[in-house]
Design goal:
This protein is an all-alpha fold and 420 residues long. It is built from 16 helices and no strands.
Amino acid sequence: MLSTARTTWSPACAVRRRPFSHEPRRAAVFLPGGVHAPWPRSHSMAARVASFSTNPTGCLEAAAPSSGIARPAPPIMDIDVAAPAAAAVSSEERVRQLVMKQAGLAAAAAARTPRMAQLTGRDAGALDVAFDRCGAVCKEYAKTFYLATQLMTPERRRAIWAIYVWCRRTDELVDGPNAAHTSALALDRWESRLEDVFAGRPYDMLDAALADAVASFPAVDARPFRDMIEGMRMDLARSRYATFDDLYLYCYRVAGTVGLMTVPIMGVSPDSEADLGTVYAGALALGVANQLTNILRDVGEDARRGRIYLPQDELAVAGISEADIFAGRVTDEWRSFMKGQIAKAREYFRQAEQGAAELNQESRWPVWASLFLYRQILDEIEANDYDNFTKRAYVPKAKKLAALPKAYFRSLKPPPSERH
């Protein structure tokens, strides 16, 4: 899962606090232009951040939100990816339709200019503190990605950090050490806080950074954020997935959504002739690929928690029972099954390359780094002879370091769609 920030909680939240784990479970995916839109002068950002300083992560209690950016909430999309549609329409197709609509909204938003306001020195400094905190969290928990964001403009880099922190905090609600105490009501409260963020009413310091980010980049829509929370609800209610189509919807919600959040920030290369939908589809594919990779890496860990994130029908066809998984049996049938699942993940990585290549050059490095590093996890599963029950597939530090220059030089290549 995505992971969240380890921060200090206020005494008011101490009873319900959820310490943050060091190991991410969901996949972190980051794909993106806009002009920086500061907070309106009429609202003291310094006062807001000062009031948040004792509660930097916030708790999920109802509280009076502070006033902030006057930005109307984005319209709720009319495509329900969970609706019982016609049997012939798969979850993957419904998500594809949603992604194309997101691309259309982004294209329309590109014509809008964020409302600008001059910050006082004190307000600007307070907002800088909030973003610095987001950057520190990203640096601590996603070092490679943090390094790769350094090529971005400050506005884009800060916005990406703010989204990373929000995703990490969201994930920890259902995957942190105290996740057993998370209820559906807690997720409802978290979603209510999200709506306040998009309306310019941040609850705490880290919310304030995200509120500024979404105001700065009008093409960032609330739908993917809501869908990620829906993915957390799936984790509360489900521990099995009957088909790959069911699993795909889960992968979209918990990881593919991150690409849709960040494409408007990273931006498309001015030299790209690709349709914006191609870029969004690539962002979605990278999220799905990374999440599938996480699932394949963590089969044993999930089984020890009573969870099986693998298509039940495909397991049955392969002759693999739940008892086999819980016992950690690495059989020929298991190896054959895993080869098919790994091939599926690699196909999504291949689709992701098409979108990554069309991004702004300054934004490509972190995306290519994520793609190369996660894809290597699949190689390590194979190197472990498909024993993902007792052996954890991880990419050695030397290989990670070697992937960075490879990703950097790949990011320098012009978009394939560029006219010559």
